[in-house]
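Hi Q.,

Before the meeting this afternoon, I wanted you to have the 2-acetamido-2-deoxy-beta-D-glucopyranose prediction in hand. No need to reply - just skim if you have a minute. The sequence and ligand are here:
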Amino acid sequence: MRFAVSVLAALAGFSAAAATPAGLITEPVAGTSISTGASIPFNYVDSNWCNEGYTPITIWLSDSAPTGLNATGQLPEGTYIEYFGYYLIGNYGLGPLPGYSVPPTNVTIPDISGYSSGFPLFLSVVETAGPESCPPGNGAPAQYRFTSVSLVVA
Ligand SMILES: *[C@@H]1O[C@H](CO)[C@@H](O)[C@H](O)[C@H]1NC(C)=O
Ligand SMILES: *[C@@H]1O[C@H](CO)[C@@H](O)[C@H](O)[C@H]1NC(C)=O
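Predicted structure with the ligand bound:
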């Protein structure tokens, strides 16, 4: 599985030196045409690199591909157009956790009328491994990884 993920990352154009990839945004696919108010399909397959029961993700839209996250694992203020929310993916067949939402199957594009036709926008997912979930366990901080797919303004 690790190997498969690396190969996909290589195909996606990441260099071997890049940080370990997050999971995969399987929908929307790259190049999807978007317009204000459109609902587009969403699906993310988590990496779950520290083997947790539940994987928190956040979903974002921005006009440049994110290059980094802030200290709380979010796209820094002023670098995104829309925050689509915080969701928990259940792993190993676990059902939804009370009080948390599972990821949506679609997202609605906000007002992007200020962007001209052909302009690329980026849908990104940040995946979190919780504090103490990754080695060495005790005292380990949360870890964050992110991935993006480019969309095109209609
Ligand atoms: C990180 O970014 C989010 C969203 O932009 C913001 O709400 C939060 O305050 C930021 N956290 C830090 C530590 O700057
Ligand atoms: C969009 O996603 C929401 C939340 O997952 C769901 O309730 C709704 O039925 C979906 N709509 C379509 C058209 O798939």
